[in-house]
Design goal:
Glutaredoxin; alpha+beta; 4 strands; four-stranded mixed β-sheet; about 100 residues; 3 helices
Length: about 100
């Protein structure tokens, strides 16, 4: 398990995302300590009006309109289960 790449989970804390509840999303993600996963507050991810935004790197997956419940799904399915959640991905960046 030590050879797995470290994932970075960026949670936008810029104006619109913060107004839409990004602090709660960040808190939910930070509460779960997962090996090889670093959760970080970040500035604007360039998708204002789509937030709260969460970016999982190096997977390059952008999740949009995230709340605490969806953040928990990201933890369970993507970060622990290694399966991205297509229904929560930003459609402009992840077209079907």
């Amino acid at each position: 398990m030590d050879n797995l790449p470290t994932r970075r989970v960026l949670v936008c804390q810029h104006r619109t995302c913060t107004k839409d509840g990004a602090a709660e999303v960040l808190s939910t993600l930070e509460q779960q300590k997962i090996i090889n996963v670093n959760v970080e507050a970040c500035g604007c991810l360039g998708l204002c009006g789509s937030g709260p935004m969460v970016l999982v790197l190096p997977d390059n997956v952008y999740y949009w309109h995230i709340d605490s419940q969806k953040a928990q799904a990201i933890i369970d399915t993507h970060l622990l289960g290694n399966e991205a959640i297509a229904s929560m991905m930003h459609p402009r960046l992840h077209p079907n």
